[in-house]
Amino acid sequence: MASSERVSIAITLSPTQVDEVVRAAARARAPSLSTLIADTLGAPPAGEHEPRRSRTAPPADSADPRLSRSLLRGLSLLTCLGSDGTARGIVELARDAGMSPSTAHRYASTLVELGLLERCPKNRKYRLPVP
Fold first, then answer.
1. pTM for the whole structure
2. Which conformational region is residue 8 in: left (phi greater than 0), alpha (psi within -120 to 50 degrees), or beta?
3. Which residues contact 122 (CB under 8 A, 6 or more apart)?
């Protein structure tokens, strides 16, 4: 074969393999949920500590106006829970999410109704649903 000849190579992927490639590519480009929430709300990502912001503090300069701050605040409760099934109280969740306990309770109640969060009947703490 001459060095100027091009060789065509074809790879056939199943629909499942194509789906996996697309999902992997999307994960590589998209920020994590906790990063997106922190950037929009001007708070540190989960696990990082910063003094609690005032409720009247203006939104972060980098906040995307197309995003719902309320939805992101509600979802921020989910990022405060580990996937290990550990239950946490509402005051602890509120502190970590940077919101009042009453606001955290309202968001948590909504997430429970949607099935995205569970409330343990014994200790009344919240956890991610067990699959």
1. 0.57
2. beta
3. none
